[in-house]
Write the structure tokens for this entry.
Amino acid sequence: SAVISQKPSRDICQRGTSLTIQCQVDSQVTMMFWYRQQPGQSLTLIATANQGSEATYESGFVIDKFPISRPNLTFSTLTVSNMSPEDSSIYLCSVAPGVSYGQNYGYTFGSGTRLTVV
Amino acid sequence: SQQGEEDPQALSIQEGENATMNCSYKTSINNLQWYRQNSGRGLVHLILIRSNEREKHSGRLRVTLDTSKKSSSLLITASRAADTASYFCATVFTGGFKTIFGAGTRLFVKA
């Protein structure tokens, strides 16, 4: 299965600033997924990132707040912009083999970025 | 909400005991997956059960699926302190790959 390197692992940021999270995959993947996990909660999908096209955002998430880049098939970034304390969460990137064929056989996740906004 | 629901929310057991977690969902699924998360880190995929399967085993894990009741259970036998983690079910909708994660069960295994 794929191995994902996610950086940073944690950060404490001032409100109003932005943080960019990076994910590097050791193999080429068509789709990458970005999730948010608020404290003590489950995972919520932010957006799906395809190489060479705009990311697809889920309801409640907008590109101005969470811009995503996908410059190639092994790398993606998620930026959390103009942060407020409500953005304090764990952010996770993931890939799922077989998704490009319309099947989900299981996600591989990065190790997560624990963001605290003060 | 289409989100899966899990119970119990938290479970505390002694090492060596079995732990059972349940997951219910609301829509037709292609498959159901279970994940483990240690201390707020990335999730680790444990096991996948397809909608036409009723039971699946992997080591000390046993998963059952009852599509008529729209529910699944994860049994961890002979639990160890290292099993302490949060466990999430994830349902994959029929016809696609969209996945909904349940709220999770926090398992604490006392040595």
